[in-house]
Amino acid sequence: MLAGYAAERLVFGEVSSGAGNGPHSDLARATDLARRMLFEWGMGEHLTHLPASGAILRPGDAVDRAVQDVLGKCLEKAHGILRQNRERLITVAELLLTEREMSKERCRELLEGSDLSRSA
Fold it and tell me: Where residue 73 falls among pLDDT bands split at 50, 70, 90?
């Protein structure tokens, strides 16, 4: 979920409303998923269960710090993958600027490198 956010930061130095702002953004969805993983599903280090309505993120509290830690690790991993594949990222982005949509198969072709020369 953070790949779009990471890509926009990497390429543009900032993020759009779809990736980073608003209740339906990639960042909001990733934050909610991290909170649920840690505090509803027991996937964190804390032996705590907080139902969806009970885990309110308050800046600096233990819940917020745990969620921030998970998101930070995920964002760094996404940045690393995108930096290693920047040429492919740019190729896909440029194609999307002209075509606006891309099938899963077309994206796979580009990412596997079989079609990089045709779209460049």
Answer: very high
